[in-house]
Amino acid sequence: MSTLTLVGAFASPYSRKMRALLRYRRIPFRWILRGSPADRDTPSVPVALIPVLVLPSAEGDTAMIDSTFQIRRLESDFAERAVTPPDPAVAFLDALVEDYADEWLTKAMFHYRWAYAADAAKAAHVLPCDMNLDLPPDQLARAAQAFGDRQIGRLAVVGSNAATGPLIEASYRRVLGILDAHVQRL
Length: 186
What we know:
Shape: flat
Strand content: 5-15%
Strand order of the largest sheet: 2-1-3-4
């Protein structure tokens, strides 16, 4: 089995999703931080998104983006510990839940990460360390300020504002309640 490469960032929910999937499926992979020196040799992708999954082949490495399509590709290339349910109706529900998480719950993640001052301050100081754990305190402070300002300014882009924040939070709490009730029945 060839070792795959996954290029991403620790702060990216999609990168974490793919890391978890590869670990669960026991598919060997090498983790590379996006923008690190090791990322220089990553094959190009049509859009600069993460994670990037690099698949080795005799014709040359190929790279793909979009975790949903990455999972589908892995399902066709690797038989062991498949994650797509064999029943088509259950597989549809599985895809529906994945799409809901990818498209809606990431709004809650972004909202909770940047809408509250204490959480935003923590994220602003932790996330710049994704690329460099050895930032001197003055550089970290500048990076945190710039990173936090940019991300907080993007809250509206993901639909989080004073009017929608309570809706996002209520929706998140509702899905947690549904999942909790489901897991308790298992």
